[in-house]
Design a protein that fits this description.
Blueprint (H helix, E strand, L loop, with lengths): L5 E7 L4 E4 L5 E14 L6 E13 H10 L5 E14 L5 E14 L27 E3 L14
Parallel strand pairs: 4-6
Antiparallel strand pairs: 1-3, 1-5, 2-3, 3-4, 5-6, 6-7
Amino acid sequence: MNLNKVILIGRLASDPEMRSTQAGQPVCNFRMATSRVWTNRDSGQKQEKTEFHNIVLWRRLAEIASQFLIKGSLVLIEGRIETRSWEDASGNKKYKTEVIGERMQLGPKPAGKAMPSEEKKPTADEPSPEKIPIIEEGSDKEIDVKDIPF
């Protein structure tokens, strides 16, 4: 049995970059930071290590991320790890490991910062951020934020 599953909770280290493929598929990329804090056994001092992850979202998740997330936003991403390779202009093989997001949960709005979605009023076709606590690709089902354990 094989399993490729990633669950990350962290903050955006960069604003989302939205673009479209030649076929018109929306795709959004951003960097996400996760930190681990522990106490050193010898010195008793707290230590912290931060990891940065490249996140890729497709279709509706990409649109929602570019609309509601900004640098510093707290977000939960669930997906899979994928490594792609290519050759640069000089013929060197390059590799990039990314997390392909399949589900996303938005965290609370950053205090004192206007979200990009607040600059315009949502239309009847466009839900407000309060109505999008959990987003799953291919699912219209919502879960109450109170049911989330963090």
